[in-house]
Design a protein that fits this description.
single chain, about 170 residues, alpha+beta, 6-stranded antiparallel sheet, 5 helices
């Protein structure tokens, strides 16, 4: 894969964060839970997108194994600066053939916001999902954006702690 300079820098920022180690973070589980509750969704998750895969570092209502980046809904979310909202995944050509739509957990609706660090890199996404098609209201998306800001602060704190441990 031929990566752009910006994508190489984004991947380096993800690697520096220390979050692709396969562990979930309890504080990010709480953010995912609050996102799901705020948007009246059964699932919420905080994902980090590496070069080839997505790793859930926080979740509520769903256990997500590492996912190939090409199958990741959040891969599409980090491509922009705005929330990504999909009211019915079965009719969106980006997702209609996705394994998470065609089989368990049968995702039908999705809303996600990119998690952009202080350097401008989209490290991952805060997302909610549902097993039935639905819309999301503007106030719900505002809540998701605010919770996304909280997730970024927690991720940056974790990255600082990771760098501190490596330096000592």
């Amino acid at each position: 894969m031929n990566l752009t300079r910006l994508e190489r820098e984004r991947i380096q920022a993800v690697e520096r964060s220390g979050l692709m180690d396969g562990r979930t973070r309890p504080a990010l589980d709480i953010v995912a839970r609050n996102a799901a509750l705020s948007l009246r969704a059964s699932m919420g998750f905080v994902s980090i997108i590496g070069r080839d895969r997505q790793h859930a570092v926080g979740s509520h209502g769903i256990e997500l194994p590492p996912v190939p980046r090409g199958q990741s809904f959040c891969h599409h979310t980090i491509a922009g600066l705005e929330p990504l909202v999909v009211g019915d995944t079965r009719i969106d050509p980006r997702f209609a053939h996705n394994p998470f739509v065609l089989a368990e957990p049968y995702l039908r609706a999705y809303a996600g916001v990119p998690l952009i660090d202080a350097e401008g890199h989209a490290l991952g996404a805060l997302c909610v999902a549902e097993r039935y098609a639905r819309s999301f209201e503007a106030g719900e998306l505002l809540s998701l954006l605010r919770l996304g800001d909280m997730a970024v602060r927690l991720i940056e704190s974790e990255a600082r702690e990771c760098r501190r441990r490596l330096a000592s």
